[in-house]
Amino acid sequence: MKRLLIALFVLAVLAPAIALADWPQARHDAQHTSVADSALKPPLAVDWQTNIGGKAISSPIVYNGTLFAGNGDGKEVYALDAASGRQLWKFTTGGSVESTPAAANGSVVVCSYDGYVYRLDASSGRQLWKYYAKSGIYSSPLIYDNKVFVGTDDGSFYALNLDSGLIAWSLPKATQSSPAADNGKVFVGTYDGTFYALDAESGHEVWSYDTKDSIHSSPLIHNNTVYVATRNGMLYAFDTISGSIRWTYDLGYNTDATPSINLATETLYIGTYGGRIFALDATNGSLRWVSDFYGPIYQSVAVSGCLYGATQDGKLFALDGANGSGLWTYSLKSGAFASPAVDGGRLYMATLGGDIVAFKESADTPTTPPSSTSEQASTPFLEPIICAAAILLTANLCRRNR
Length: 402
What we know:
It holds the Pfam family PQQ_2. This is WD40-like repeat-containing protein. The protein is mainly β. Helix content is 8%, strand content 39%. It contains 2 helices and 32 strands.
């Protein structure tokens, strides 16, 4: 009995720590790995679905059993029960919410195109503070080192104190790229093509590099290397300490997507407007495989045993991370700009039709598309047309992959 009581006590102590695993901000963590804490095996089936009444452009996050999602048509952020989809609360801002929220310390940070950064109580939606950034915000906030890092559409990049909302420092550069951080440095790309490594505490520039092209993609950090793509499809790998280039790779297609990584195999994955996923060796940039054509991809893929991704025209898919072969597909009711989130045995997806959809593992037979090729992808006749249409749609919606 004594041992049982001790075991129960230990579980009670560990329960909050276990719950904190979650998917609490864009691309799971401060390094933007997009790696889930557990594997989810396809095929998947819909567990629940909730409509929030407007375009869900930003990606969902999950924190302490609550899913948070923004409304790109309205001005709200919604808190839903992650197990059932039941609405817990909603908070109305002064503008559209198109960036992915971030959660920590019992709170959720939401950015709006009204120019404000809001910190809300995660349980009730009560406003704790707000900060006026003077410009619309598409960049997804990053919570790191008790600060909120976020860029504005035509103003500055900010570091705010998480507890008080007071400004710690700013960089006068416009950005839609969402920052990543590691080892005391925060990394972000700008409209003018400059990629920065900044001291997270002071904001002082550690190093920078002019890519000569606009950066909408967000960085990924792994093993003292930071990876980022320019809009014209050039993928860079920088040494995080010196800023020296380790390698580059030309994807051959425009991209706003952020790379993901398989930590065990040291493989990078990134999607393009050209509708393909590229798998590269993270250490030297060599090509491992290229997936078949799926449709324009703005999102990051989630790494959860296999790869889960979505296309702008609404195809949700699973790929084998080792060779890119198709494992499963599902047709959403509308298109998607959001990246999937994986937590607690579920995959969560947001759509342009306003649906927040939760999937769980299923015993059904998977739908398998054709196998991939390991060769550099060619561009069929239809691909430039689809890519051009996708670029126009992106410009009209004035948004970036979240």
